[in-house]
Amino acid sequence: ANYRGLNREASRYQAGSLVLRRELGDQRGIAFALANQARAEQLHGDFTRGRELLEEAETITTRLEDKMLHG
Q1: Residue 47, Cβ neighbours under 10 Å: how many?
Q2: Which of 4, 37, 43, 70 has the fewest Cβ atoms within 10 angstroms?
Q3: How far apart are CA 21 and CA 28, in angstroms?
Q4: Cα(69)–Cα(62) distance, rounded to whole angstroms?
């Protein structure tokens, strides 16, 4: 939805995905969902919230030593 210009809708989907990943305890999925939610927030102009979400994602990927998400 982000790529079609439906940023608010994308944000809702990302938030829902994050809730599900947290319920499942899927740490890699949580990090991925956080990064996607951060992008949606930044597209809305909320750079502070976007940065917070990215920092949380980075903390998780660092802990997991996930090279694909952490780089």
Answers
A1: 11
A2: 4
A3: 9
A4: 9
If you search the block for the tokens 């969902």, which residue do you land on?
A: 33
8 Å CB contact between 10 and 38: no
Q: What is the per-residue pLDDT across 20-58, written as a single tens digit (0 to 9) for each?
A: 999 999 999 999 999 988 988 888 889 999 999 999 999
Written as six digits, the tokens of 42 are 């930044």
The neighbour count for residue 3, using CB atoms within 10 Å, is 7
Indicate whether this model's pTM tops 0.70: yes
Burial 13-35 (b: 16+ CB within 10 A, else e): bbeebbeebeeeeeeebbbbbbb
